[in-house]
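Quick one: structure for this chain?
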Amino acid sequence: MEDKESITGLQKRINALQRENHFLRDVLNRHNIPFEDELDIFLNGNESTAFEEDQGARIIHPKHITRDMANRFYARFWGRTDVYAKRSVSKKTGKAGYYPQCDNFWTNVCPRKTGDKIKCSECKHKKYTELKIEAILSHLKGVKADGSDVIGVYPLMKNGTCRFLVFDFDNHDLGSEEIVLPIQTKNGRAK
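Got it. Here's what it folds into:
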């Protein structure tokens, strides 16, 4: 009985997908948007495959990241320079997050050092670290295995304007940001 129910459910799903496909083709045709060639390539693989298994293989990694490269990169992702965030992974939970950098972090005036639970944004001693070319170079080089050289910029300027728009196509399944994969060494062992 269970097999018959699953077959019925699958047939309903196929029917719904066929209706959706028909509807979408009609919309494309009504708006004179060609799709047949792309569909043929996708279905038959006449050209390069529609999905690359190893998407990172096509990225060219230069041997050396220069200051000029870092400046060109930042020119495309220009945000605030008076503050930036760095990636950090909690040793207790293994969760990753981004935290604004402060020149007073863990100094004698930092409330965290004295054990006070206060948000950095509310701290009277906050002195955000300026974003400099060295941080961008470290980000682009990406030499730290734990990702602690990865930075994040604040794209919204103080006057409310923004100079770039980013589309992030990474894996954002529910909870995926909490997964910390083991680091593979050259001999294939996980750290």
